[in-house]
Structures are given as structure tokens and as C-alpha cells.
Amino acid sequence: MDAPTDAELYHLAEQLGGCLHAVGLRVVTVESCTGGWIAKALTDVAGSSAWFETGFVTYANASKQQLVGVSAHTLAAHGAVSAETVAAMAGGALRTWPSATLSVAVSGVAGPGGGSAEKPVGTVWFGFGDARRSPGAVVQTESCLFEGDRRAVRAQTVAHALRGLQARI
Fold first, then answer.
1. Residues in the chain with pLDDT < 70?
2. pLDDT confidence of residue 134
3. Is 96:53 a contact under the CB 8 Å cutoff?
4. Cβ 27 vs Cβ 42: under 8 Å
């Protein structure tokens, strides 16, 4: 898959924003490997304050713990790039920011280094949280293995996150 262009990311964000606004939902992002790019894509859309709450950039493990409550045990047992960690990130964001309805969390290996046999470069985990269900938020996780250089992996991550949020509206 080719990396999406900035124009394609804008279009995805604009579509998502229209859907969020139409049904009155608000979103929060928690980003590691994308460094705030998902939030940037969302806030590139004029009027995004109607449906975008806030974004957390939790690049370091300490920030995952301090900002959205990921436990040290989860990080030690599963690593930052794992289903367990993104689930904790997505759920923690909704607890930290209760006016948001949906959340997306991403953590991955964008490269060019840092990969392993279990988690090669291009591995990204996604957590999608939904606070519309009781009790508490429901979080779904999934992983992707993207190809390309660092920019390509990150751009594909942003696109997948935007599509994943829209699919959950």
C-alpha cells in the first residue's frame, strides 16, 4: 500500500469530522509513533473544535503512565507496542477526558531501527475506545504491519486510525 498524501489524510479527517459532528460525538487521541500527527490531521479541518477534544503525545513510557494511566506492569509485561498497552492508552484517555466519546491510541515501530523478530519495523497497534457503552469504555485493538520508510509507516498509521474511528461511529 502506498503512503497516503497530505491531501488524502485531510480528506479522511474531513469525512470523519463530518460524521462525528452529525451524531454529536467527540474524539480524543493518544499517540506514540505518530507524535501527534493524528491530532494534527483532525485539527487541520476548520471547525474541528466541534468534535475534537484533545490529543496526548505519549512517546515515552513515562508519559503513557503519567498522562493516561498505563500501568508499569503492562509496559513491562507486554511492551509499549502491544494490544494491552494501546487498550490501556485508549481507555485511559476516555477516563482522563470524560467529555470525549471515542478515542484512538497508536503505538508502533516506525523505523528505520527498533524492530525485532516479534515486532518488525512497520508493526503498529491500534486501540479504539468507545464510551457510549456501559459500564465504562469498550476498547477494541488491532494491529497492522505497514511497509515503507518512517514517513510511510506513520502516514499509513494516521490513515488507518482515521478510518477506524469513522467505522466505529
1. 1, 134-135
2. 66
3. no
4. yes
Does the model's pTM come out above 0.90?
A: yes
Q: Are strands 138-145 and 102-108 parallel, antiparallel or unpaired?
A: unpaired
Please, which residues have CB within 8 angstroms of residue 47's CB and are 6 or more apart in sequence? 17, 21
Greatest CA separation for the chain: 43
Predicted confidence at residue 137, as pLDDT, reads 78
Contact by Cβ (8 Å): 30, 58: yes
Distance CA 74, CA 149 (A): 29
Note the pLDDT tens digit of each residue in 105-122.
Answer: 999 999 999 989 999 999
Element (H, E) at 37: helix 37-43
Q: Residue 52 in contact with residue 26, Cβ under 8 Å? A: yes
